[in-house]
Amino acid sequence: MNIYDIAKEAGVSPATVSRVLNNHKNVKEETRNKIQEVIKGKNYSPNTIARNLSVGTSRNIAFMVPDIENPFFSKILHGISDRAMDNDYNVFMFGTAENTAREHKILDSLKIEMMKGLIIIPVSEADRETAERLKEFEEQGVPVVLIDRDVRNARFDAVFSEDMEGACEAVECLIEEGHKKIGIITGPDTSRPGHERLKGYKRALANNGISLNKDYIICGNFMEDESYEAMKQLLDLEDPPTAVFTSNNMTTLGALRCLKERQMKLGADISVVGFDDIKELAYTDIHLTAVTRPVYEMGCEAMRILERRFRKAEGVEEEKLIIQRNLVKTWLIKRGSEKHKDLSGGSDTYHT
Amino acid sequence: MNIYDIAKEAGVSPATVSRVLNNHKNVKEETRNKIQEVIKGKNYSPNTIARNLSVGTSRNIAFMVPDIENPFFSKILHGISDRAMDNDYNVFMFGTAENTAREHKILDSLKIEMMKGLIIIPVSEADRETAERLKEFEEQGVPVVLIDRDVRNARFDAVFSEDMEGACEAVECLIEEGHKKIGIITGPDTSRPGHERLKGYKRALANNGISLNKDYIICGNFMEDESYEAMKQLLDLEDPPTAVFTSNNMTTLGALRCLKERQMKLGADISVVGFDDIKELAYTDIHLTAVTRPVYEMGCEAMRILERRFRKAEGVEEEKLIIQRNLVKTWLIKRGSEKHKDLSGGSDTYHT
DNA sequence: GTGAAAGCGCTAACAC
DNA sequence: GTGTTAGCGCTTTCAC
């Protein structure tokens, strides 16, 4: 069943049917009603593909994410998805598995004309090929919005967080507890959250006159397993740190695994502050102090920026050239894991 | 740039270009090369929408899930997504938020023509409207595969798990520990996992000559908050249960929240066994004994079934009428939370 | 306010 | 082996 069947049935031309389908004005109320009646009666719904071909665009947006199972990303997707649904966009989900090759492959197979926009958390900011491909999308009129991670060699609209400030606050919280020997398990240096959080760590130390110890900086690549190894390495130092800042949720889990294995009590034998919260820990003995941010809203915001770009493309809005890069604020939630039994202040309050 | 440009440039007809694009045989090696050269040279890629319109189908599959952020569903998505990518399908993700109205809305807006297949974890099996819509999809040639939950009034291909058996094993494990007063926080009665797991609970009791106590059965609707309330209710009974079976991961979290609040020690003051594991707990003091199943594989399997249906539709395979309903096995991982200090066997081994 | 008709870019008979 | 051509279902000028 197509627009012609409806037209015939309603005794009008396909053009008119198309008009009511698209809510055009110039249609007599009477004919409009008649047509809508027929449409309902025949339970007709227009063919999106044909429509897309005709108008040369779609309402599909692609969301590319490094790890489908990471709750942080799920939450972003949730934000994107809710806002997309409200505005009748459909979102395709692609997992890159933290693998640039896979990222390229997906980007190549994404038919440009099928996508109206692209939201991506790129695997690596050092990757030129991804940057090239993204630029191509923009050139073809498909706007790109980054979330959380940046790319070099190009500027796109983006939603980031105050990684440096958040990390700095976290480490300063440890310093306030009296810690001087503070380690960090970093993310990859090729991602904004990776290097900015490290920068925040360094700044906190500098602000407080604590000199940097290279041994205390180990990369965990935001991966649980590597972070576990990193934690082992830190603890096995001759002069191990009394506190560790873990750079993201996976990093924190890896570190916790190590502590558990060694039967070290968090908030007593060792202190840990993490970036990004882990909801499930709330009902356990792990009272994690963590940097938090409005993750769901980051997704919504990315979608909002995209829509703005669509409107600009249609000439509805001006200032086509301004690139929008939003920074969301972070805040620290203290729960006790920043404490240490050997340092002033004690940790009793948290271990009742 | 389109197929005509390429044709002109290569000095052939658009049909021939189309032939090489689609790997048809009847093309002279020489012309094929020539055309491929031009394609590469002009960096041309065919328009998927036009192709879809022409052949009357797409490679898009829709995945509808009740809760985008539940890790259980993320894992399923991961399975679907990986397999889809390997076979060049694209997956649209839709979150129904456990809301039938939203589910209907999405189903209605999913233009039938745009989807080649549908994988869904329906909100409620009692919902006729969803069932009707799904049937319509199948009638229009869009196969539907259910995961985890069923719908009444219709039969679709599906991937379920052995909910009853899994729950039964979990509860029998508690019974083996000496428990006689065992509570359950159930899921909604309108979902297969909900009622089947309850059935498993009942069967375990019956198998072991333990009579049913209605007070011990409380519905948590698979929601964390409701489950928290349910746990409170159980503990406030005059003769509270010594052990509780929690029917899914969210249910377990709600119960844990309550225990934490009341400072009850899991595996000592009370025993809990849950359906579905919670990864994050591994590094905490919560040694949850849980029913486990191959979640990622359930996603892959759903996708595999869908592809099979596509092949059948194309007449590649026979036996068009057989409905395929797969049941994945579950197994129990014991970690100590089934123990209780007041019962034989002791729990010391788990509290070193 | 409405209709006729020319596309959108590709595929698939059918003819040669 | 290759070309011609008529769609796929919709939108959108341009007339009327």
TrEMBL record, chains A, B:
This is HTH lacI-type domain-containing protein. It comes from [Clostridium] citroniae WAL-19142. Keywords: DNA-binding, Repressor, Transcription, Transcription regulation. The keyword Nucleotide-binding does not apply. InterPro entries: HTH_LacI, LacI/GalR-like_sensor, Lambda_DNA-bd_dom_sf, Peripla_BP_I. GO terms for molecular function: DNA-binding transcription factor activity; transcription cis-regulatory region binding. Residues 1-55 form the HTH lacI-type domain. SMART domains: HTH_LACI (SM00354). Pfam families: LacI (PF00356), Peripla_BP_3 (PF13377).
